[in-house]
Amino acid sequence: MKILMIGPGEPSRRNSGLGVACDHIAHELSNKIHLRLFSPETLEENAQHSSENKNTYKIHLGDKLGDHRELNADIVHVQIKSALTPYFYLSNTEQEITQEQDNHIQQALDEYTKALTIQGEKVDFDLIYAHDWMSIPAAIQLKKRFNKPLVLHIHALDYDRTGKKSNSWLYKLEKEGLNAANAIISVSHYHADIIIKNYGIDKNKIHVVHHGVNKKEIEKFVSPLKEPIILFAGRLCSQKGAMEFIETAKILHNKNEDVRFVMAGEGELFPALINKCMEEGMMDKFHFTGHLKQPELFSLMSGASVFVMPSASDPFGLSALEAANMGLPVVLSDKCGVKELLPNAEVVSKSDPKVYAQRIIKLLQNPEETRNSIKGNHEALKDKNWSNSVDKIIKIFENSI
């Protein structure tokens, strides 16, 4: 079975959790089937461009981006305009995209699609396996051109980013891809319901495959701080509940709770978050790390006390799964798909900073109960590794061919 995978590129600050998940999937697939991987390069890896895998082919298109680490697959790198990333979109509460920017993004997508389609015509494959909106136009064209089945893996949608059903070109593109796909992979039952209700997709062609988590060998982080660390990790944006985390911290700060707050990640809300911390007189209790690579993030998790994910809508929430795997108690929004794998997580049913603060205090003040929560989540993750997740994906491939 030869699979043509169109992915978002190697994990980087430009593709966030999507890149991490697809990287794990690609490596597991490459050990089990014949994989051909098409993906955009990234700016961060451009400096390493000289060390190419012999099976790697480059398409020069627009601004230079980067390289992809070696794996057991035929790889095609596609260089695209820098405006085109999985997370170009910004919600109305953060920053409006101008018509000029929108046009530039669509032009970059058209060029990327053309390059992918040209390369797709040169290789042999049995099935197209595409991830999210950037891959949809090329996937549809290749499906029509070669009459091959299409499996579309959805990690996030326009609905999650805007919080509503829109009439944008991106929503229309996603709906076209969902309708064209022979099978759809959703990362959670929570998100499958969104696909069905807001995109009008037949539930019978949607398959839920949760992300996995592998055991980690890391250098444990020894905190120089005496206070417990409350950790947020993710894009600093409204969708991830970044401002809700600040409001939660404000409540704990006003209660004179002796804790520190760490926000790991980058995003559009960064200046507003800094300003809010300054206004509330909390800067001496806050630490903003910027983007962290996976080993650095896991090390930080090993020294934290509580992980908080107050997302407005999170199809999965991979960082929360990683945190639970690292032995952290987790406080989640009920709009996070990852709750389906963490039976002992503290789940908050509405976006209320007071409730988040109460749950954090509960975990800090009840160590025995917290240890039981950690143990319960850890037990639930025993067989939730990436290899098992990819086995389910391969079964979907087999049933689609």
TrEMBL record:
InterPro entries found in the cross-reference section: Glyco_trans_1, Glyco_trans_4-like_N, Glycosyltransferase_grp1
SUPFAM superfamilies given in the database record: UDP-Glycosyltransferase/glycogen phosphorylase
A Pfam match: Glyco_transf_4
GO MF: glycosyltransferase activity
UniProt domain Glycosyltransferase subfamily 4-like N-terminal: residue ranges: 122-214
Glycosyl transferase family domain: residues covered: 215-375
Protein name (database record): Glycosyltransferase family 4 protein
